[in-house]
Design goal:
Helices cover about 40% and strands about 15% of the residues. The protein folds into two domains: about 5-65, no CATH class; about 105-190, no CATH class. It is an alpha+beta fold.
Length: about 190
């Protein structure tokens, strides 16, 4: 059995790694981007919309270099990483005094889409403050929700039910999780009494 290297769920054989080495020798004076695009063209690595899977290939090249299988040409540019200069969302103060009582006493609870509304500031602030990774702008289209009790978005937070307060879904992720996601929303609906 031929040895292989696993990256992002796919096994790459030593023959494929040798082909990468051949591309590196042939195009040693070209950029890393060009090299990754050439490998994509040779292997037919394209997204459903026809665009080359360039970033996945570049990640593979960096992984192989870190493992000592290949040596990439030096970087031609060091582009600025916008994530390294990420500004934290504006802090929105929320009353966090604990509430006592049953969840059923809070009804009706409304799940509200807050993307591109004034409540989006509150959503981002809550995620930044209470999510272990903080807030970072999702990639692509996404949805953002708050659970609101009688017009008060902070009440569920006061009851320490943060899971029900903020719900963000990236559309790209949602596509692969449709059945699981619908079960989550069905579960939320039954808990919140929708």
């Amino acid at each position: 059995m031929e040895q292989s290297i696993r990256y992002r769920g796919k096994n790459y054989t030593l023959g494929e790694i040798d082909e990468i080495r051949e591309v590196l020798v042939t195009y040693q004076d070209r950029s890393r981007r060009f090299i990754s695009q050439e490998i994509c063209r040779r292997w037919g690595l394209r997204q459903p919309n026809g665009v080359l899977k360039d970033m996945i290939c570049r990640g593979l090249l960096l992984h192989l270099e870190a493992q000592g299988f290949i040596e990439l040409p030096p970087r031609k540019k060091n582009p600025l990483n916008p994530l390294s200069r990420r500004q934290k969302p504006e802090f929105v103060e929320v009353d966090q005094t604990p509430c006592c009582g049953k969840l059923s006493d809070l009804r009706p609870i409304e799940l509200v889409v807050v993307r591109r509304t004034p409540l989006e500031r509150l959503y981002r602030s809550l995620i930044e403050e209470h999510h272990y990774l903080g807030y970072s702008r999702p990639v692509g289209e996404h949805l953002e929700y708050l659970a609101i009790f009688q017009g008060q978005p902070d009440c569920l937070l006061r009851m320490e039910l943060l899971l029900l307060v903020t719900l963000g879904v990236e559309i790209a992720t949602w596509g692969g999780l449709k059945s699981r996601g619908s079960r989550i929303l069905t579960g939320l609906s039954s808990i919140l009494g929708f």
